[in-house]
Amino acid sequence: MSRVILEHANLIDGAGGTTSGITIIIERDRIADIVAGTVEKSIDDIVYDLTDKTVMPGMCIGHFHAEYNGLGTMPGFSLGSERPPGVTMAYAIKNMRIALNAGFTSALGTACVYDTDVCLEMAMAEGVCEGPRIVPCSPHIVATGAHFPATPWWIEAKNLGLEGGQCTGPDEFRKFIRLQAQRGARMMKLLPSGGHGFPHTHGMRNISLDELKAAINAAHERGAWIRGHVNYKDQIIECIENGIDIIDHADDLDDECIEAMIKHGTYYCPTIGMTVMTIRWDDTKPYFDFMQYYPKDEAYIERTGKILQRAQKAGVKMLIGDDYGPKYGFFPNFWGDEINMFVDEMGFEPAAVIEMVTANGAHFFNDDTGTIAKGKIADLLVLDFDPMKDGLKGFSDPAKNILSVMKSGIFARSTLVPKARS
């Protein structure tokens, strides 16, 4: 059996280590060994000389709506119901490929329509399409009438799109989540509050405490993760203390919230990308009109940077990703631009951001990804730059600067040429 051998590489292992002159040996879908210097090779080995190139783990999107495109473009339709299932799935397949080409070999689903995430996972397993391995998510789950769909009430639409998980009372929350788990969802998405992209009244509850507890317990009983779109301090802490796995957005994050996250081991996806875009863009730019409910205060960026730095230094496990793609589709630079925002706008060190996009997400994939170590899944990127020396700008142009993307030991795309066999 042939091996893939990457030699003379600069290595960023995702666990804080950087080493030069490393050889990585890949057998099937696993990293068989990592050694200093070179190794003895057989005639069947496929060898790549990566002198002056950097190898790092494949990245993980922590907040991903695979099917987003055209949301809000048809008045009177709930978000996500603008197109029939087949067309929606076609956009999802396209977006998965964009994400994979940008260096993301894993993704955490964050609400979808038509069971898109589950179908994507099935299609990839059968070799029908390619993209990041995904933790499939439910639609938005919320109390009836609290996070209302865009369809006028008098039409009585059956397809509520992303807002299809409307429940009344703890029993309905339990039942809906159990059915979602039965359909293959391994991530449930609650909306305990509005804000951050949705109309809201500050402090308004979308889910009662009893409903919240029932939902979290039901997800965990079925072996699923559960995450929450939540922005107000009292509800952030309430979600954390009741065992939610991921907090999304959390615009009111403060030191008390950080302390609670550390105590309970809660993961946090701050989703800064769309917010910074909204503040920095004007009404001539794509998405501006769609993002009317995002903050538009320049001082917000400075405040957010300070609190996120404190969260990171305290040990909160953070993820990257945001609600990209809703109106005009995905652009390959979205995630790379967000990676740079954490350095340029939030004041993070590059090493901390690399950990956010690699090792942190591995928790949701049995810690089998996210770092380069013997025995781990061979999800690797070969870069034409060194993030620790050159900064992270290269991620904003993945087609140019990410020379190859390997997922499970197979190159999803690559410009590398193997050495001639001797």
UniProtKB/TrEMBL annotation:
UniProt xrefs under PANTHER family: ALPHA-D-RIBOSE 1-METHYLPHOSPHONATE 5-TRIPHOSPHATE DIPHOSPHATASE
Keywords: Hydrolase
Gene3D superfamilies: Metal-dependent hydrolases, Urease, subunit C, domain 1
A GO term, aspect molecular function: hydrolase activity, acting on carbon-nitrogen (but not peptide) bonds
Domain of life, per lineage: Bacteria
Name of this protein: Imidazolonepropionase-like amidohydrolase
Domain Amidohydrolase-related: 54-409
Organism: Advenella incenata
